């Protein structure tokens, strides 16, 4: 698998935005993480698991740089491959949609852009939580929700799970934009027709189907299709 | 997401700012535990600062509602807009919640 191999060279990061730093003990890393000193989530997660595969990450200030480092582009397609932990801690769907629009020359109004971001976000969060972290969010009360919350926090810091990858392929063909999202988990379940008002979860696929022109499910891959106006 | 909490005479006002998504479960865990203890009469959640919401966050709001109903607590969602409003429409939240636009 490609991407996220970034030869470490501190000279490359002389122009880090103010407040950013290169984390310690990653001199042997094949990839490098830089983050804000004040970002406890990032620091906690990665300090605990610092090893030879530290993801490139950042916040909104240098997201274009972030995406540029993890994406491989052709004329009409973009491939992005990243750790579950990176996808979890970054607004990756916003980044990918804006990056894709820019690279592929797509113009959509705010309403349609938001729909695409929302559907992509739901697919990616499913891939992280249900696919790679293997967590069912079948909580039905607050106590179960708290257990779920603890389980997610624990799993996203588990090196065996956080380094499972999410692959996102974006392409455009005949006025149709597609995003294929795959994970390293089990096969996807189609729960798109379940629209019970009483449930606390399970709406992700319903939302995806409402916002996309078409949806294709195949093993652990979901493809979202959008007709471009 | 940033969550500003203000408690005044058994009234809980939450002002949420930013993106409210599946990563924010930790923020709501203590709030849900407080609601479960039935320490409030009214809860208002101001969503005017929320620019993006996902299905997991909607699930959290449903949990708040469920617990509020069980404890006879009044719950109002306030000022959803843009993508948040669209998500409320898609998931029929307007049928389930008291929402003040």
Task: Give structural notes.
By secondary structure, chain A is of the alpha+beta class. Chain A has helices at 40-49, 63-70, 84-89, 92-104, 110-132, 142-155, 159-162, 204-211; strands at residues 20-22, 34-36, 71-73, 77-83, 165-173, 176-182, 214-218, 221-227. Chain A has a 6-stranded antiparallel beta sheet with strand order 3-4-5-6-8-7. Chain A has a two-stranded antiparallel ribbon with strand order 1-2. In chain A, helix 4 (92-104) crosses helix 5 and helix 5 (110-132) runs antiparallel to helix 8 (204-211). The longest helix of chain A has 23 residues, at 110-132. Chain B has 101 residues and is α/β, with parallel strands linked by helices. Chain B has a 5-stranded mixed beta sheet. In chain B, helix 1 (25-36) links the parallel strand 2 and strand 3. The radius of gyration of chain B is 12 Å and the shape is globular. Chain B starts with a strand and ends with a strand. At the A-B interface, helix 5, helix 6 and helix 8 of A face helix 1, helix 2 and helix 3 of B.
What's the layout of helices and strands?
The complex is a heterodimer of chains A (229) and B (101).
Chain A (H helix, E strand, L loop, with lengths): L19 E3 L11 E3 L3 H10 L13 H8 E3 L3 E7 H6 L2 H13 L5 H23 L9 H14 L3 H4 L2 E9 L2 E7 L21 H8 L2 E5 L2 E7 L2
Helix pairs in contact in A: 4-5, 5-8
Chain B lengths: L1 E7 L2 E10 L4 H12 L5 E12 L1 H16 L3 E5 L3 H9 L2 H4 L2 E2 L1
Parallel strand pairs in B: 2-3, 3-4, 4-5
Antiparallel strand pairs in B: 1-2
**Which structural class is indicated by helix and strand composition of chain A?**
alpha+beta
- Order of H and E elements of chain A: EEHHEEHHHHHEEHEE
The 3D shape of chain A can be described as globular
Instruction: Kindly report the oligomeric state of this protein.
Output: heterodimer
Rg on CA atoms of chain A, Å: 18 Å
What level of helicity do the residues of chain A show?
A: 25-40%
Report how far apart the termini of chain A are.
34 Å
């Amino acid at each position: 698998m490609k991407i996220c191999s970034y030869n470490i060279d501190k000279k490359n990061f002389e122009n880090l935005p103010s407040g950013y730093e290169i984390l310690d003990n990653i001199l042997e890393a094949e990839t490098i993480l830089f983050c804000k000193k004040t970002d406890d989530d990032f620091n906690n997660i990665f300090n605990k698991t610092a090893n030879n595969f530290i993801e490139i990450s950042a916040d909104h200030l240098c997201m274009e740089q972030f995406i540029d480092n993890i994406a491989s582009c052709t004329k009409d397609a973009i491939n992005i491959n990243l750790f579950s932990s990176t996808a979890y801690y970054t607004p990756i769907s916003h980044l990918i949609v804006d990056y894709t629009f820019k690279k592929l020359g797509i113009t959509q109004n705010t309403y349609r852009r938001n729909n695409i971001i929302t559907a992509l976000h739901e697919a990616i969060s499913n891939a992280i939580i249900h696919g790679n972290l293997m967590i069912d969010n079948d909580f039905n009360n607050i106590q179960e929700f708290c257990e779920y919350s603890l389980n997610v926090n624990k799993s996203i810091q588990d090196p065996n799970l956080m380094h499972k990858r999410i692959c996102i392929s974006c392409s455009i063909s005949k006025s149709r934009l597609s995003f294929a999202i795959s994970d390293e988990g089990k096969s996807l379940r189609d729960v798109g027709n379940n629209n019970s008002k009483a449930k606390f979860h399970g709406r992700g696929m319903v939302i995806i189907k409402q916002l996309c022109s078409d949806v294709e499910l195949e093993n652990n891959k979901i493809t979202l299709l959008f007709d471009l106006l | 997401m940033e969550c500003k909490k203000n408690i005044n005479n058994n009234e809980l006002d939450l002002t949420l700012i930013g993106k409210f998504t599946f990563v924010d479960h930790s923020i709501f865990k203590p709030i849900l535990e407080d609601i479960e203890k039935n320490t409030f009469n009214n809860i208002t959640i101001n969503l005017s600062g929320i620019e993006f919401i996902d299905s997991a966050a909607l699930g959290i709001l449903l949990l708040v509602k469920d617990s509020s109903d069980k404890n006879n607590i009044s719950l109002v969602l306030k000022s959803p807009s843009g993508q948040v409003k669209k998500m409320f429409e898609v998931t029929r939240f307007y049928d389930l919640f008291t929402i003040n636009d």
